[in-house]
Design goal:
Blueprint (H helix, E strand, L loop, with lengths): L1 E8 L4 E8 L4 E5 L5 H10 L3 E6 L5 H4 L2 H8 L3 E2 L6 H5 L1 H8 L18 E4 L2 E7 L8 E5 L4 E5 L2 E2 L2 E2 L9 H12 L7 E4 L5 E2 H7 L5
Parallel strand pairs: 3-4, 4-5, 9-12
Antiparallel strand pairs: 1-2, 2-3, 6-7, 7-8, 8-9, 10-11, 12-13
Length: 210
Amino acid sequence: MLHRLTLPCTAFEQNCSLLWCSDTNEAALIDPGGDIPMLMAAVQQRALTLKAIWLTHAHIDHAGATGTIARTEGVPIIGPGQGDDYWIQALPQQSQMFGFPQAEHFTPTQWLNQGDTVQLGAHTLQVLHCPGHTPGHVVFYSPDLKHAFVGDVLFAGSIGRTDFPGGNHADLIHAIKHRLFALGDDVTFTPGHGPESTLGEERLYNPYLR
């Protein structure tokens, strides 16, 4: 069985997700932005073995703790897409700008592209390239859970900002309508901030997608 837990972290209340396979006790952290003791306590309390960090994109509130956890736990960093490399290079400056603990520099073990998959225990998740908020933004979709981890692409009642360097509103809308919504109306999703929703709910009622 695949299980998930949402762990809001940092002053931005960013939704880090702990994902684990109960058959193997292998776990991944999706978007560990900060609050390392809290995140690692969630792993240890469940007697899980952290196997990887998966990143949807490289903004500080999603990636700030990545370098430190990868170094101390000896785990690979999977994602985001290579278009976010300049955001990774800027993480130390982002730390200072937003008052975060100093982010350690890192290079992802693997960049991700549309059509890739990631593995956790016996479970395979699909990778969707969904640019617009950042150029290399990816989404992780679990067919087993019918659940997507969408980072800052889509929110309950809103969409990701596109006014940062590298943002593109047309790309974002295209990714939501042609890649996310294609997964099906009954798919639930964890956004980067705020409450969960379903793709059907957002397709019908999100005012930014009319």
